[in-house]
Amino acid sequence: MEAGGVTDSLLSGACVFFTLCMFSTGLSDIRHMWITRSVDSVQFLPFLTTDINTLSWLSYGALIGDGTIIVVNAVGTVLQTLCVLVYLHYCPQKRVVLPQTAATLVVFLLAFGYFWFLVPEEDQLQQLGLFCCVLTICMYLSPMADLVKIIQTKSTQRLSFSLTIASLFSSACWTLYGFQHRDPYIMVPNLPGMLTSYIRLWLFWKYPKEKDRNYRLLQT
What is the pTM for the complete model shown? Predict the structure, then answer.
């Protein structure tokens, strides 16, 4: 195998491995919800945005015939859908969360139908690529929804350190993958992923969870 082929295989393997690691961090949240029968300290928005994101990238991978993108996002869709369903099952505020989820799903289905049935074939790649770019950026930004609250409380309890590390490596690998394949729709949206991961790492350094535990002990 030529050197270029080896590099391609290694990079594809790294993309698959680190992205599946990122998706699998949701399994710890599922376990937490299952054991506690609650959704305390679990964020719903990252589950929902990631699920829609994986569905979109699965379509993109099928459109360009990229096996790496197809495999990663097929597994990711299954895992994230499971996370969403478990959260909805244990969420006490179903009257709020269910309509939000349904509205998001309806918007996605309308966009999906518009893309496949109304967009000319020669424009599909560009429009789907742009759509995936926006969703990926939203996915990486969603854990930052509680940024103000984190700074006010000086607590990173609502952030996942393992998800942050997995997101950093995953976004870095996909940035290189997009650069190697000269695909800006893959490369560009993963740059914010690296940036937001570094911001979250800074928050963990600034407000370590050990201080959170000490603070709760003092309060009790």
Answer: 0.79
